[in-house]
Amino acid sequence: MPRLHPLVCALSTLCLSVLAVRSEAAHSTFGFDVDRVDLVASSGSLSDDFDDGVISPWEITFGTASEAGGVASLTSPGTHNVVTDGGAFSVFLDRSDIQLEVDWAALGEFSVTSAWISAVPGPGESFGQFTQRDVGGGAVVDTAFVIALVAPSVAATLGLSPGLQLIQYQQQQTGGITDWFTIEGVLVDEADITGDVLFRTVLDGSGNYTHSVSLDGGSSFVSPFADTFTALGGSGRLSLFAYEVVPEPGTFALVLVGLAGLGSVKRRAS
Ligand SMILES: [Ca+2]
Ligand SMILES: [Ca+2]
After folding, report:
1. What tens digit of pLDDT does each residue of 65-86 get?
2. What CATH number is attached to the domain comprising 170?
3. Is the peptide bond before 57 cis (omega within 30 degrees of 0)?
4. Which value, in Å, is the radius of gyration of the alpha carbons in the chain?
């Protein structure tokens, strides 16, 4: 398939209300492997099998990532990253992310799928994929689809059930202020993970976002969440991430879990 480089745009200067704390995590260990990514659009496509030993054109935005043996590995040590919606909550994560800058507007309708080597997240751990689009007027739409093991101590705070689940998180922010925010979780049985885990995000021509997941290596997909409508277009990015919630003493005693999409944009050192 043709490479998509002409559609890969320069990073916009969008910045959410993210406070990144660059410190190494000594007490967290996690590691998840991405086998392949396929981005398909009417105007082009991009496939990466992570088979040339070089993580580029992906940028490591948080933590530790490497490419070997046909996979991209997102592992600890991550980067400690305090994220907030600017209001009610903060989240303290140890995370490792890679991202690709994408001109979504040039793509139009698209489907993006990441295939992860079969794994079950440990307590507080998660992995998944994230898209962000600047849809104009200073508004940024984030959408994330993850599998996470949510601890009982934080589930109620998020309005989610504790346990292993798929989580869809979406928000729109304008100028760092949250316009709308949704988080949904659907419990899954560990025994249902019988193969690689595939996340698929589709944006159709009407602006309907659909997330679907396969837990059996791509043989079957389910869409546990309702479609979400957002404005079309925009530049932005595609991120793949793994993280572990880091309970911090004192300030972060009530740390939340599962808000994977928050803070997936960091300020680029200029
Ligand atoms: Ca591969
Ligand atoms: Ca590569």
Report:
1. 999 999 999 999 999 887 655 5
2. 2.60.120
3. yes
4. 17
In the Cβ-directed half-sphere of 259, how many Cα atoms lie within 13 Å? 24
For residue 66, give the ligand nearest its CA: 2
CA dihedral sign of residues 103, 104, 106, 110: positive
- DSSP element (H, E) containing 116: strand 110-116
CA of 108 to the centre of ligand 1 (A): 26
Tell the residue number behind the tokens 């996979």, with chain if given.
71
Using DSSP's 3-state secondary structure scheme, residue 195 falls into coil
Ligand 2 mean position to 160 CA, how many Å? 36
Is the CB of residue 255 less than 8 Å from the CB of residue 80?
Answer: no
- Alpha helices (H) along 17-132: 104-107
Question: How close is the Cα of 120 to the center of ligand 1, in Å?
Answer: 19
Residue 269 lies in a domain: no
| 176: its two tokens | 């760092």
The answer to whether 196 and 115 have CB atoms below 8 angstroms apart is yes
Answer whether 0.90 is exceeded by the pTM: no
The predicted-structure confidence for 167-188, as pLDDT tens digits, reads as follows 988 888 898 788 888 889 999 9
Range of the domain at 89: 5-252
Nearest CA to 117 among 86, 178, 89, 75?
75
* Structural domain contains residue 244: yes
Q: What is the 136 CA–ligand 2 centroid distance (Å)?
A: 32
Say what the pLDDT of residue 173 is: 86
Q: Which ligand is nearest to the CA of 58?
A: 2
Q: What's the CA-to-centroid distance between 248 and ligand 2, angstroms?
A: 35
